[in-house]
Amino acid sequence: MSEDTIRLVTLGRILRRRRRLLALLVVLGALAGYGTSLLFPPRYTASASVLLPGQWEERGLLTQAEIASSSTVVDRAAASLRWTDVSRAELRDRVRAKVTDGNVIRISGTADTPARAQRLSDQVAQQFVVFAGRIAGDSSDTDEVSGPQALRQQVTTTNRRISELAEAADPGRTVESVQARTELEQLRTALQEAMKKLDEADPASNRTGMVVMGPAPRPTGEAPPTRIQLVAAGAVLFLLLGIVGHLVAARADRRPRTGPEIAAALGTVPLGTVDVPTGRHGPKRRGARARLRRLLGTDTRWDVPVPRTTADGAGLRLRYRRVYTRLRDRLPAPGGVLVLVPEGDASARHAAGRLAAEAGSAPSPGSANGRHPLLRVVEVPVARPLVPDRGDEAGALVVLGAGNWTEEELAGLAGACADAGHEVVGVVLAGPVRLRGKRSAGHRDATVGDEAVPDTAAPALAARGRTTGGGA
């Protein structure tokens, strides 16, 4: 898993085998989101629209939007609202303005109630129109007249003077008088056309017509993030964290899984793999922690392959018999065999018990060296391994499940064997399988070939110092 690419089948395996733990994480995430929603009161947002008539460039519209949300406009609105529980700096954070289609600026205000949100957006829109009018020189309280307005007054005065000159000229009596009146009328027309073009080209003349497009509608729902959104976000976040945590832990896992890797860590050779029916791995661990692990489904690994299915127990018996034959051929001298099982490895303990039962039922003439060794099963703690001193044993056999122990733990086990004077002659892996045959609810015996091996054999053989097996 540590070097494999993450695939959908991996995610599906996590969701399937860790569904109880992930469901608990989803509930905890939802509760965290709900608690977060209690820390932040609900907010409501209302929007008012202001129409800017005439021709506007995009930069001009953006400038007006900035003016609408400026501190000057918001402070004017705050002075009109007179809210004592909200500061002006907080109001500036609650007002937003943006340009929409059709020369419309939408001003949005956020408050703790729908009525307040409506009043805030309406007041900011009104103050924006007044402030923009003062900038354009169209406000009623403007004292000075300058710029285009002063030019318009000069043009009006000039038109009045042209009319006076035209009336003073001798109408139609001389050629000079007719020519003068014609030139004066042409001048009047030219001034009027120039002022018309000036009005069309000056955007300030269009600002005087800003209109608030009705009161802001009162909001009917909370502004995001709502309580439901926070609860959903918390549940999804915790679910993703749980899945990512499983993937990170699997990629960081460097425990050997194959027979050659485990044998190399122990300094020996693999003798084969035996099958252990699932659901019959010996006594269950006790204690509150073990019960919690079983409840959450974390007592079994999620990243191991799905146990394969076998038709009957004949194949199981054949695998144990072949492993026992290889073990006899590997022994350097006559004597028994010390079978070491890591403490807590229920599958390995069950496999060791069956291997010992096979040793007791195997015929002696079939071996290559004429020996039929006794097997003594001993359960050894992996954290601080302690192996019994060598007696009449010709070697030690390690039986364990794949992917459960690190290289350091296996090396420590091999070191404990060397310290006790035992030679590790091989390692046997215990792999789970599923039987297709139906079993009754109270059945305690596992049928293997033509014989029955009691389920109680494995726990009894796993006791420290217990010797079993048969002689040739």
TrEMBL record:
Membrane disposition: Multi-pass membrane protein
Domain Polysaccharide chain length determinant N-terminal, first and last residues per copy: 4-69
Pfam families: Wzz (PF02706)
Biased composition (Low complexity): 352-368
Places the protein is found: Cell membrane
The organism's place on the tree of life at top rank: Bacteria
Acetylation in keyword set: no
InterPro entries: Bact_polysacc_biosynth/exp (IPR050445), LPS_length_determ_N (IPR003856)
Keywords: Cell membrane, Membrane, Transmembrane, Transmembrane helix
Region (Disordered): 352-371
Chain segments annotated as transmembrane: 21-40, 228-249
Keyword S-adenosyl-L-methionine: no
Family matches, as PANTHER family: CAPSULAR EXOPOLYSACCHARIDE FAMILY, TYROSINE-PROTEIN KINASE
Family per similarity comment: Belongs to the CpsC/CapA family.
Name by which UniProt lists this protein: Wzz/FepE/Etk N-terminal domain-containing protein
Species name: Streptomyces griseoaurantiacus
